[in-house]
Amino acid sequence: MDNEVDWEKRWKEGQTLWDAGKASPALKKLIEDEDTKHLIPSQGIGLVPGCGSGYDVELLATPERHMTGLDYSPTAVEVCRKIHPQAADKNYDFMCADFYNFEIPAGGYDLAYDYTFLCAMPPRLRPDWAARYPQLIKKGGVLIALMFPLEEKEGGPPFSLSRIVVTQF
Ligand code: SAH
Q1: What's the pLDDT score for residue 1?
Q2: Does ligand 1 have an atom closer than 6 angstroms to the CB of 100?
Q3: In the predicted model, what is the mean pLDDT of residues 20-42?
Q4: Sheet harboring 65-71: ordered strands across?
Q5: Quick one: pLDDT at residue 154?
Q6: Which pTM was predicted?
Q7: What's the longest Cα–Cα distance across the chain?
Q8: Which of 18, 51, 53, 110 has its Cα between 20 and 30 A from that of 77?
Q9: What's the gap in Å between 117 CA and the centre of ligand 1?
Q10: For 87-132, how does the pLDDT look when each residue is reduced to its tens digit (9 = 90+)?
Q11: Is the distance from the beta carbon of residue 68 to the nearest atom of ligand 1 less than 6 Å?
Q12: pLDDT exceeds 80 at position 73
């Protein structure tokens, strides 16, 4: 796929400064807070596109909710499989594929979680990004999009977002 950022190269060279080495605190709060936890479908299948090293996939997986982390960098997926040897027992897995072009499971996903993925897209792909979720998520399913970073500035990482961009899509 034509993409200005060579993610595989970044992963190969260990240029993964965005990687916190743990799940996102905001997601943890969303899952644990009495006010918000009901928003996340408790059963079915979920997808984390651009999952990086997969900690959010691990956090979202429960015995009733199978999660798949998807990343098109083979090195990222290799890293995920290495640092999550327990994945199969804990009801999650990883898939190396392109978000825009992979086989969606019959019926679609109950849940998708997007974090630091829209900002990974060159702006010209944003409309495709927005069009892909309705294809992936079943009717009545849920998209949690945790938008970060939200700064009104040029640049990264690697394609900065703003409130205006986010509300457009
Ligand atoms: N969400 C993760 C990783 C963010 S970096 C975290 O918070 O740590 C963005 C990730 O998206 C990279 O690992 C990159 O390989 C992946 N990616 C970029 N474009 C993609 C695409 N079209 N399909 C699947 N993964 C993609």
Answers
A1: 47
A2: yes
A3: 94
A4: 92-96, 65-71, 44-49, 109-115, 137-146
A5: 56
A6: 0.91
A7: 43
A8: 110
A9: 6
A10: 999 999 999 999 999 999 999 999 999 998 988 888 899 999 999 9
A11: no
A12: yes
Ligand 1 atom with the shortest distance to the CA of 18: 8
Of residues 28 and 166, more confidence is placed in 28
163 phi/psi in degrees, rounded to 5: -60, -35
Whether residue 18 has its Cβ less than 6 Å from ligand 1: yes
**The CATH number of domain 7-11+42-168, selected from 3.10.520.10, 3.40.50.150, 3.20.20.70, 3.30.1490.20:** 3.40.50.150
54 CB-contact burial (10 Å; exposed 0-12 / middle 13-18 / buried 19+) = buried
CA of 33 to the centre of ligand 1 (A): 27
In ligand 1, the atom with minimum distance to the C-alpha of 50 is 11
Q: What is the pLDDT of residue 156?
A: 54
73 lines ligand 1 (CB under 6 A): yes
Residue 79 reports pLDDT greater than 70: yes
